[in-house]
Specification:
alpha/beta; 15 helices; 17 strands; about 15% strand; Glyco_hydro_1; binds 6-O-phosphono-beta-D-glucopyranose; single chain; beta-glucosidase activity; about 450 residues; eight-stranded parallel beta sheet
């Protein structure tokens, strides 16, 4: 049984939904300038949520949704990355939060979801410590302005995915060494957010929001177990160990050492790192990864072209495999509901913090019928199976406090544009035809409404 105060929500991010990419003083982010394949939608209009948030929030409220995860774009609040604050944007989000509260919806706010101001990227992005200082200024503004309206803050969306699949997510590639210097700066930025949130809004709670999923060994061969240990450390535990325990994960440290990376750790950061911690964990989960140890002489380039799939490889450490026991979705992502239960139990064993599932969902080709329905029984069964796993984990003592699936409304997928839909609510547009952007609740919306009404029973 799920607890009575379990939070039923839904999630989106700003750049994938808002559009209005150059309105009201917003500057360009790395997402706005990211090269996209020609036939894939860009983020200029997206789902037009910036102009239609009222309608979207009201539809979610009608489904009984109690929490909505959004992100705020840095490029709206401080268009130059640092310096002057854009009051029009501040006023916009006051209105958004007011609308949510009027609809009894609790905001869960991500401070930054892949959309670094381009001006900061031009100066080195997360490789430059100035970006950390700029982030400090930015989140200080958020906590001061919205601290009375927001109780749940999420720091930086999926720094692990951002760094591991950098070209696909950010549009540029860090070298191996740069990637781990960016790791350090991102994690320091997160620690600053924990500290400032607790100082400025003591009634607020804050947590990290990585993409966490158990890495399986491809066989019982001891080398494959080592491979899974390495990729678990590189993909998952290095991030959460830093956030929650204030340490560099030892296997990750050994991996850095073996690959010749000297991550510059500043001794003067020690106090910040070891005395500021999250109140809860936000966790995004889609799929699991299975790996084996690489073999000598394999003709592969190191790299991770899509961290959520099997296409991962690092010479001497791990190689992604197809897991013959799992099915894949239409976009080739492995579907593994039991993996969520396993992952939740592992995360609970390691960190003992309340957990909110801040993303989980199925990207699929949906069809809108002539009478404006979407019969997405495949999405219902994905969500149902994952919720069952959450309930099982709760029954075995894991403190999961909320479920905010991806996504509330259809949005522009990071990798595959508009054709890959995640929403409970259909948004009527295609990759290149904006149509009228009308909203139509899908079958999964009505199913979720019923789930919420019965608290998951
Ligand atoms: C998560 C991101 O990694 O995966 C989301 O936080 C993203 O922004 C989601 O949309 C699904 O990925 P994709 O590529 O299918 O959009």
């Amino acid at each position: 049984m799920l607890p009575n105060n379990f939070i039923w929500g839904a999630s989106i991010s700003a750049h994938q939904t808002e559009g209005a990419f150059d309105e009201d003083g917003k500057s360009l982010s790395v997402q706005d300038v990211r090269p996209r394949e020609l036939d894939i939608a860009d983020f200029k209009v997206a789902a037009d949520h910036y102009h239609r948030y009222d309608e979207d929030i009201s539809l979610l409220a009608q489904a009984g949704i109690k929490a909505m995860r959004i992100s705020i774009p840095w490029t709206r609040i401080i268009p130059n990355g640092t310096g002057s604050v854009n009051q029009t944007a501040i006023e916009h989000y006051h209105q958004v939060f007011k609308t949510m509260h009027e609809n009894q919806i609790e905001p869960f706010v991500t401070t930054y979801h892949f959309d670094l101001p381009e001006s900061l990227q031009k100066q080195g992005g997360w490789l430059n410590e100035k970006t950390v200082q700029a982030y400090e200024q930015y989140v200080r503004v958020l906590f001061n302005e919205f601290g009375n309206e927001v109780s749940y803050w999420l720091t930086i969306n999926e720094p692990n995915v951002m760094l591991l699949a950098d070209r696909k997510i950010l549009g540029f590639t860090y070298s191996h060494t740069e990637r781990y210097q960016a790791f350090y700066n991102l994690m320091i930025a997160e620690k600053i957010a924990f500290k400032l949130c607790h100082e400025i809004c003591p009634q607020g709670k804050i947590g990290p929001v990585p993409n966490i999923s158990e890495v399986y060994p491809g066989s019982a061969r001891p080398k494959d177990i080592r491979a899974a240990g390495y990729f678990n450390a590189v993909r998952n535990w290095s991030y959460l160990d830093f956030s929650v325990r204030g340490i560099i994960n030892p296997i990750f440290q050994s991996y850095l050492h073996q690959t010749g990376i000297e991550m510059l750790i500043k001794p003067e950061d020690t106090e910040l790192v070891t005395s500021n911690f999250p109140d809860f964990l936000g966790m995004n989960y889609y799929t699991t990864v299975t790996v084996e140890m690489t073999k000598k002489g394999q003709d592969r380039t190191n790299g991770i072209s899509d961290q959520q799939s099997e296409d991962v490889y690092e010479d001497g450490f791990y190689k992604g495999l197809t897991n013959p026991f799992l099915q894949k979705n239409e976009f080739n992502w492995t579907v593994d509901p039991l993996g969520l239960e396993t992952t939740l139990e592992t995360v609970n064993d390691r960190y003992h913090l309340p957990i909110y599932i801040t993303e989980n969902g199925l990207g699929a080709y949906d069809e809108l019928t002539s009478d404006h329905q979407v019969h997405d029984d495949y999405r219902i069964s994905y969500l149902k199976d994952h919720l069952t796993s959450i309930e099982n984990a709760v029954n075995s003592g894991v403190d999961v406090r909320g479920y905010l699936p991806w996504s509330a409304i259809d949005l522009v997928s990071v990798h595959e544009g508009m054709k890959k839909r995640y929403g409970l609510i259909y948004v009527d547009r295609t990759e290149d035809d904006l149509k009228n952007l009308a909203r139509y609740p899908k079958d999964s919306y009505f199913w979720y409404q019923n789930v919420i009404k019965n608290n998951g029973v």
